[in-house]
Amino acid sequence: MASRLTSLLRSRRGRGDDDDTLTLPVTIMGDEKRSIKLGRCRKPSSSSLVKYILGVGGAALMIFHHGKNKGPPRLRAMTRTYLRHQDQDWHKWSRHDFRAQFQCSHHLSAGTKSVPTLEYWQTLRDVYNSEVDSSVRFDDPVPPTQGYTLNENGAPPYYAKLSPGKGRGLFASRNIQEGELVDGIEGGTKSFMIFTTIDAMRRYLMALPEPMACDVLEWTYTQKIVKGGPSVLLVVSDISSLMNAAWDDDADPNVMPKDKTSSMLLYATRDIKKDEEILMSYGVFPGSIW
């Protein structure tokens, strides 16, 4: 993982903010179908821009600029691919700006959110390969719907389902003993999507349909992959991103790091019964760099 971060940093230093990468969403996810086809193309010429605008429709441009977020997701996503090359304001957007533009407060409060499917996780990874780092291989034999390879026994001891009052969450798939490693690998897992610059994160969000971008904003956290190294933005593209925090006064975290310097490794603070929700404290993570 350290070598991956080093190579990513080198590639970012040699890459400017403007590139010729363009995501072309062919089938944008709806409530049921969540898929996307990606491709690369050159920046459109002036004549092709006219055709593109006519094809997308002026109404779609107005929808995006005014933040009304109405109309088909396909039109909104196609509009963003055009704006990436014409409107540079999104390069300055903060996390709050993205949440406002994509109306994430509505999405995150929706009681109809489902547990992400395999296709959903694969889309997040495909867009990352297209927009951020094409060299990363998400080749863990454990599917993201089960997590990742934690140890010789396979996936972590939890599964994802809807959590009453919290949305999506993680629950123990078996009895877990106090002191047992529940989540995390030193150096990171093969599900890590690393963003060494904020602009890389912005490009990534602009290439996603709004509900997916809102999920990513919710799951993004700051971490140091290499001890003593720079802080980076991380998104984990598997169900471990669904772990909730213990917010209620009557609920304490049942998984925590042994110390603040190993916050990527979460151990059971007590015995956890099968089907009990696994809860952590978000306070173990460093302050956000974005």
Can you characterise this structure?
The chain has 290 residues and is α+β, with helices and mostly antiparallel strands. The protein is 32% helix and 12% strand.
List the helices and strands and how they pair.
Layout: H1 2-13, H2 46-56, H3 58-66, H4 73-86, H5 95-101, H6 104-109, H7 118-131, E1 158-163, E2 167-172, E3 181-183, E4 192-195, H8 198-206, H9 210-219, E5 221-223, E6 232-236, E7 244-245, E8 255-256, E9 266-268, E10 279-280
Parallel strand pairs: 7-10
Antiparallel strand pairs: 1-2, 3-9, 4-6, 5-6, 8-9
Task: Provide the spatial order of strands within the biggest beta sheet.
Answer: 3-9-8
Largest beta-sheet characterization: 3 strands, antiparallel
DSSP helical segment count: 9
Q: Are there runs of 5+ residues with pLDDT below 50, and where?
A: 9-45, 50-75
Mean pLDDT: 75
Order of helices and strands: HHHHHHHEEEEHHEEEEEE
The helix content, as a percent range, equals 25-40%
Strand fraction equals 5-15%
Gyration radius (Cα, Å) is: 20 Å
Specify the structural class: alpha+beta
Distance between the termini: 22 Å
Give the overall form: globular
- Kindly state the number of beta strands: 10
